[in-house]
Amino acid sequence: MRKVFPINDNWYYKPEFSSKDLLCEAEECKASFEKIELPHTNKELPYNYFSDKDFRFVSCYKKWLCLPKECKGQLVFLDFEGVMNYAQVYVNGTLAGSHKGGYTGFSLNISDEVHWDKENEIAVIVDSTERPDTPPFGGQIDYLTFGGIYREVQLRFADPAHIESVFVKTEDILSDKKRMCAEVSLQNINDAGYTLEVCLMDGAEVLAQKQAAIDENANLAAVELSELECIALWTLEDPKLYDVVCTLKKNGEANDEVRERVGFRQARFESSGFFLNGQKIKLRGLNRHQSFPYVGYAMPRRVQEKDADILKYDLGLNVVRTSHYPQSRHFLNRCDEIGLLVFEEIPGWQHIGDEEWKEQAVQDVREMILRDRNHPAVILWGVRINESQDDHDFYVKTNETARMLDPTRQTGGVRYLTNSDFLEDVYTMNDFVHDNGYGKYLQKVIKDYKTYDNIQEIDGETTALRDPRMVTGLDRDVPYLVTEYCGHMYPSKRFDQEERSVEMALRHARIQNASYGDEHISGAIGWCAFDYNTHADFGSGDKICYHGVMDAYRIPKFAAYVYASQVNPEEKIVLEPATYWTRGDRSTGGVIPLTIFTNCDEVHVYCGESLLGVYYPNRELYPSLPHPPVVVDRMEGGWGSKWTDAEFVGYWKGEPVVRRTYQADPVPTFFEIHTDSKTLVSDGDTWDATRVVFSVTDQSHQEMPFFQEPAVIQVSGAGQLIGPSLVSSVCGKVVFWVKTIGQKGTMQIEIITPRLKAPVCQTIEVK
Ligand code: GAL
Asked: Of the chain's two ends, which shows fewer C-beta atoms within 10 Å, N or C?
């Protein structure tokens, strides 16, 4: 039987490499290398204002291990989940293999290189430079790829005859009697007597089971389970998962077993929209980069899972695009568990390289699909280089490869081109047309400087999304999905002036409204979920693109509430006035028009003691949104009049269900720590981490948008701080992650700011 050992602890790292490092003995190496745990970033970076070249170098990772005697006679594999960007793996000084591309994993059979009777040395030379021979590199890209062995590694032992991979296809989904077929790739079936048993399980309960004989020398076997009754569908509300256990047996004895988690669901893009299990669903999503402050891509399972939770539960999304590459297994697993659909794509950004480069991109299609085709959450494969030019032969090949490896899913390929060569099943389009008139305004400003102050006169381009037929140039409707909008058209920082933050939100709202209003658009996935680090050629000069509806710490901007407020009030009531509630932060003062993102039926607005009015969702401006925002267009008093407290009371089904109050005279009042998890796990292998949010809020617990005072963070006990210990607050918040250090016990977090006499403390248990 196979045995799997995660090997993420006790690695040794050196941020450079010379051939001498391969020869250096264990003790000598251990003294000069740094001891680390995986996932690991080759270089911790500041939050912003660093050089985008800082992590582009070749480094060396080493590990020493003895093999368990009971596995002797089995094949030995090393499985890497993600090494950025090119890895060469040496085992006991011999090159065991190499891998190009940092977003998919690879396995190496190291059976010939290992010793069973003494310690083995694994050395990984990691090239984190932007090698132009490997996607996404060769041109400019608007994100950083960071470096290192940034995902997990395991050691796997298997009998010579073993299962290589399992692909479970679920069929007849909408019938009472469903079917599934497990296609199993096999290795070294060199004689007769092998059988394959496939078992469908719901927890510990066996629902169906079948055994089939395997032909001698077969490298593929398929077992179908049919007439499956009482199978719950995988839906967004109840994403039911089952296990499929495939056991390879020789003369009745098990010699390998693989367990895959699956869901029964049907996902189809039609010209009339997207259908899940035959039911039309408007896709409402955002793009996600997998990066985090300081550590780039290297975050462990809990943090990856939390991102999926944030997208589903905090932002109310039903789909995410893993722009622009395959993302962590943990993130995708969580999407399966919580019912968050995924559009996954190959690495790339605008640039297409030479033939060798293209072959690598086709290989990326293979590796992505082979890795992820059992995830029910994945509904579409992106098989183009994001926003590249048409390239007929190349994209015929990526499409063919995808369809061959997974005939159950449709393909898309993200472009910004109109009339593009439509080789995929879904025309996936980045539609950046909406600029709320700014483009025309700018042209006029440039032409006639005098019109500069008269924005009112400008007849702006307010189109939110283009008509799909206009984009495709086809005389028929085809499956169509908007895969990006907003982004660079209107970046906004969390600490921007109120007007700018509000306008960013309104653009997201206008575009979502347009998507809901066009039955031929399957949905719209905005740019983007979280602010991200980028190259000097992009962003705000500090190596950040402030395009997220949340900042890089996953703290919401007003735009986040456009999405959050679209959820059914039965699930969650949302009431988020897009205001700092100040007399003088906006141009000309005041706070109107004041947009309130809410799913309430009505909002009662009070200024001081008096009721200003009762306001309803604005269906005139947003006729198609499930929950249009409320717009308050009137306010009493002007510059020089007394500013008062405000209260917003949301009503649902005639009852007051939520209340938000704002102070006329806010002062820092509450200093609180919130952690995403109160318990972390030290499992003796890899590290665990959680986000910590320290908030300074006013008398009504409202955020303080311009509170920037410094804070000192101290973490002691069984944990460590990620990032610097002295930081400035942003809008009254200090956000960071803490990690385990291989010890059980408790971790103490203390934060102090100039306004506090004693630190605020929080304890995290490490089990
Ligand atoms: C798109 C691109 C994204 C991001 C975005 C910013 O063109 O696909 O990666 O750069 O622009 O708006």
From this structure: C
